[in-house]
Amino acid sequence: MTKILKVAVSVPLRRLFDYVPPAGTDAADLKPGVRVEVPFGRRRKFGMLMGLADEPEVDRGRLKEASAILDSEPLLSPDDLRLLSWASRYYHHPIGEVVAAALTVLLRKGSAAEWAGERLLRPSTEDLASAEQACARAPRQAALIRLLREHPNGVPHSRLGELDWDWRSAAEGLIRKGLASWCENREADAPACHSAVSPPFTLNPDQQEAIAAVRAALGAYTAFLLEGVTGSGKTEVYLQLTQEVLARGGQIMILLPEINLTPQLQARFRSRFSVPVAIFHSGLTEAERRRSWLGMQRGEVSILLGTRSAVFMPVKSLGMIILDEEHDTSFKQQDGFRFSARDVAVMRARLLDIPVVLGSATPSLESVYNVSQGRYRHLRLPHRAGGAAQPGFRLLDIRGHRLREGLSPALIAYIAETLARGEQALLFVNRRGFAPTLTCHACGWVARCRRCDANLVVHAGDHRLRCHHCGFEQSLVGSCSGCGSEDLRPLGLGTERVEKALGEIFPGARAVRIDRDSTRRKGRLEALLNDIHEGRVDILIGTQMLAKGHHFPRVTLVGITDVDSGLYSTDFRSGERTAQLVTQVAGRAGREERMGTVVLQTRHPGHPLLHVLIREGYSGFAKACSEERRAALLPPFAYQALWRAEASDIEAPRRFLERVANLANQRTSRDLQVLGPVPAPMARRAGRQRYQLLFQSGLRNLLHGNIEALLPRISELDEAKRVRWSIDIDPIDL
Ligand code: ADP
Ligand code: ZN
Ligand code: ZN
């Protein structure tokens, strides 16, 4: 009997589909991990061969024949398939959609999996020093030769593309002189040497210890939490570890939040290693993404810098995974297949028996807990590299003070002193736009979004009112739609408003605003950062964007206009997030000899967690906050799963989740709490009514067992057909 193909098809069904092999194909020749084209309903779809079986689940006569096998060799290895199957089970997400998440769009659509390699510009002479001299009168050619000296195996075309000058004519010049030539970087002549350029300093003892610990673990699974304040030299540790992995012939995956994958960081890896570096993030073209993917899958490229979605990418001989800023919420996919790239990375390392390093200045309480349980090994870099000082904190009690657009006289004085010293000040404001609310002074009317339970945000720059949740926008109204009064007032603080106020208070100072609005145009953020680094800026105003990834060595004052909003929120994680944000923003300030000051404006100067944070730093805070969580039996001391449902009417999602709750309660032990259903924190969004239902348990297996048992019954409920529903395992926003 011919074997049956078990195929994962990207549809929202929690199962594989059976096919017979295409005519003329012997199933015995097929290996799981190849793509298969199959008839599906009235259409054709591309799927992934997950396995072969002797007997189908349905009558053999009803089976359809697969149309084609796309790949002669598997795209996904048995290890890759094992990881994806685990993820599908753990996140209770349809396997076909999980597999699709591991492929790029082009590969999902059946495009050929041929790795074209990359053109390299290679030196044609060994004596590059003389060659440089020979080009003394052609400075661009000389610059290219210096680049060739850093990359004796050839400079990748993509690396040249990053140069902001006309390298093409310089390259042609070198080729004409017989000093360089183009070649294809294919398997046969893949670079053999990956010598790294050593750093211009000696590693400090903490760095050496961290590197030694991870090096000793190579070749086996260990999870490390590398806790190091901003500027403590974590990235340097990553570079050294990369070198260790490459020296053993392995490949390495370095995962970062989207915003941290900056050109500077890429440049740091590229200038350190002479091997190609693959990049994978949402800003690339699909062709570029496929190239990075295939380069790692084939083992042609050794270093990957990628974001969340890269965690499932197949890698031929993965030697280590590093995930930086592990506390960052952008590692959690918040729609569709909701996975945590951090947790998947740890599981992947376990399945492959390799080390995984999670780095952060402000580790999540989950990771801190895992350290306390002995699941992760703790490595610390407590000092700033090169001996730079830690910033000092000051709490500013703003009760009873007259604020000028949210700025207290004391904060304004701090800014003035900083500017007088010729240093930079950074103001953190948690909302973008001019003001989060527009209200009528005569009747109290508030501009609301028609489709969401949310206020419209005033954007003064382009005279618009915008909803930050659904994208609705309209022009800024001049009169109240309730009473017609023209006395409309913006309420609350946004970055634009603070920028304007500072412009009035310090008319001579050069201020820049950094938020999603001001950096929308491509290249704009880089240009602004450049101005800041070159000292062409005196005051920086921005949102969380300022708290991530960038270092501002000239900044010596950080002002946080409002810490209170984060301390008093319904989300139990808001305290943790606020502490992380404050610490991260603070860490951007001051470098080397320049000491930074961090000023926090508050109306609750007695808040206990705020005090712990300031007195004992983030670690002390994490300890205290963990104790609160333990007492309240909240994660990480309990496990959660959140059912969400939405529809255009309010009844359907509530009724559906009530059915789910009933089904759960029928079978439940005391160890599973079923909480809800309740309206979602923003009950109406983009015109959809949203409800949620929380499952919580101290026992992870019990929680997952219940969900698994419920899912088949839930899918069959009539109520399920009237809503869009999903399940979120380990949710991070409730
Ligand atoms: P992090 O990633 O923790 O913010 P980095 O690795 O970027 O820290 O290091 C911060 C700065 O200190 C960088 O400019 C880096 O080159 C430098 N640096 C790192 N390690 C050392 C060291 N041992 N001695 C001197 N400078 C160092
Ligand atoms: Zn009015
Ligand atoms: Zn809206």
UniProtKB/TrEMBL annotation:
EC number: 5.6.2.4
Cofactor remark from the record: Binds 2 zinc ions per subunit.
Superkingdom of the organism of origin: Bacteria
PROSITE patterns (UniProt xref): HELICASE_ATP_BIND_1
Recorded GO MF terms: 3'-5' DNA helicase activity; ATP binding; ATP hydrolysis activity; DNA binding; zinc ion binding
GO terms (BP aspect): DNA recombination; DNA replication initiation; DNA replication, synthesis of primer; double-strand break repair
Catalytic activity annotation: ATP + H2O = ADP + phosphate + H(+); Couples ATP hydrolysis with the unwinding of duplex DNA by translocating in the 3'-5' direction
Sequence positions that bind Zn(2+) 2: C449, C452, C467, C470
Pfam families, alphabetized: DEAD, Helicase_C, PriA_3primeBD, PriA_C, Zn_ribbon_PriA
Domain Helicase ATP-binding: 215-381
InterPro entries referenced in this protein's UniProt entry, alphabetically: DEAD/DEAH_box_helicase_dom, Helicase_ATP-bd, Helicase_C-like, P-loop_NTPase, PriA, PriA_3primeBD, PriA_3primeBD_sf, PriA_C
Cofactor names: Zn(2+)
Binding, Zn(2+) 1: C440, C443, C480, C483
Keyword set includes Zinc: yes
Keyword Zinc listed: yes
UniProt GO cellular component terms: primosome complex
Keywords annotated in UniProt: ATP-binding, DNA replication, DNA-binding, Helicase, Hydrolase, Isomerase, Metal-binding, Nucleotide-binding, Primosome, Zinc
Purpose of the protein: Initiates the restart of stalled replication forks, which reloads the replicative helicase on sites other than the origin of replication. Recognizes and binds to abandoned replication forks and remodels them to uncover a helicase loading site. Promotes assembly of the primosome at these replication forks.
Subunit structure: Component of the replication restart primosome.
Family designation: Belongs to the helicase family. PriA subfamily.
HAMAP family the UniProt entry points to: PriA
Record-given protein name: Replication restart protein PriA
Organism: Methylocaldum marinum
